[in-house]
Design goal:
Helices cover about 30% and strands about 35% of the residues. By secondary structure, it is an alpha/beta fold.
Length: about 160
């Protein structure tokens, strides 16, 4: 049990470092490092106004305006939860726009990103149970493991992400 916990801690640290290095590469516009960290067929999911879809434009090199080029993704927090790494930040410093990225790391490569703008995100983990059935109440079988901190939860749309 302790050995398994140590492996999970090492995996979480590796995943955290990978996502941290991705943001550093994005900030310095280091396309070579970005391409090394991302799977060529990365799966993408975006929730927010189309005008806020800046990460995809940055990763694909299709920045269209000075606003796109000035928008930096500097995470305030990066939290690994198994193979999913959550990053949260805002822009500008006044936090008028908040964002959450949920990156999935598989075999040392980032294979998926879910991007949320101006959305309150709560992450829950379901307990492994043979008794869980679709449509059954899961109050006692799931737990909140992370919640975005930079949004006004009362006035923002909310999403529940299960990992």
């Amino acid at each position: 049990m302790a050995d398994q916990q140590q492996r999970q801690t090492q995996s979480d640290e590796c995943n955290h470092n990978m996502v941290s290095n991705l943001y550093k590469a994005l900030a310095s516009r280091d396309a070579t490092t970005v391409h090394c960290l991302l799977a060529p067929n990365i799966e993408w999911w975006f929730h927010g106004p189309p005008s806020c879809n800046r990460l995809m434009r940055l990763l694909t090199g299709c920045t269209t305006s000075d606003e796109d080029n000035s928008f930096d993704f500097n995470p305030i927090s990066i939290v690994p939860i198994g193979s999913v790494v959550l990053a949260e930040g805002c822009f500008p410093a006044s936090c008028e726009v908040s964002w959450v990225h949920a990156w999935t790391v598989t075999d040392g490569v980032i294979t998926q990103v879910r991007e949320y703008f101006n959305t309150s995100v709560t992450v829950t983990r379901f307990a492994k149970s043979a008794n869980v059935h679709v449509g059954s109440p899961c109050v006692d079988k799931c737990q909140c493991v992370w919640q975005s901190q930079l949004t006004d939860h009362a006035s923002m749309p909310s999403l529940l992400l299960a990992v």
